[in-house]
Amino acid sequence: MDDELMKKAVVYVDSREAALKESGDVILSRAEIFSELGDVVNGTKPALSERTSVFKSLGMGIQDAVSAKLVFDHWKARP
């Protein structure tokens, strides 16, 4: 992603820790992370919809576990 876009945008991430270690877009652009998505969902940080927003998702183990459970439950429920 363009460095200037990253610097000007409101950057949301799924995990601040992971983004600062693994996201080349965040690290190389030196973009400021505004918030984790969970903080916005919980209402502790606002969603700044009047500005350009970037959501950087690196994936979290819990997302994998929930996805696997949904697939398993669907498979188990088949006739």
TrEMBL record:
Assembly information from the UniProt record: Homodimer. Binds the thyroid hormone triiodothyronine (T3); T3 binding inhibits enzymatic activity.
Family that this chain belongs to: Belongs to the ornithine cyclodeaminase/mu-crystallin family.
Catalysed reactions, as listed in the record: (3R)-1,4-thiomorpholine-3-carboxylate + NAD(+) = 3,4-dehydrothiomorpholine-3-carboxylate + NADH + 2 H(+); (R)-lanthionine ketimine + NADPH + 2 H(+) = (3R,5R)-1,4-thiomorpholine-3,5-dicarboxylate + NADP(+); L-pipecolate + NADP(+) = Delta(1)-piperideine-2-carboxylate + NADPH + H(+); Delta(2)-thiazoline-2-carboxylate + NADPH + 2 H(+) = L-thiazolidine-2-carboxylate + NADP(+)
Lineage: Eukaryota, Metazoa, Chordata, Craniata, Vertebrata
Protein name (database record): Ketimine reductase mu-crystallin
GO CC entries: cytoplasm
Cited InterPro entries: NAD(P)-bd_dom_sf, ODC_Mu_crystall, ODC_N
EC number: 1.5.1.1, 1.5.1.25
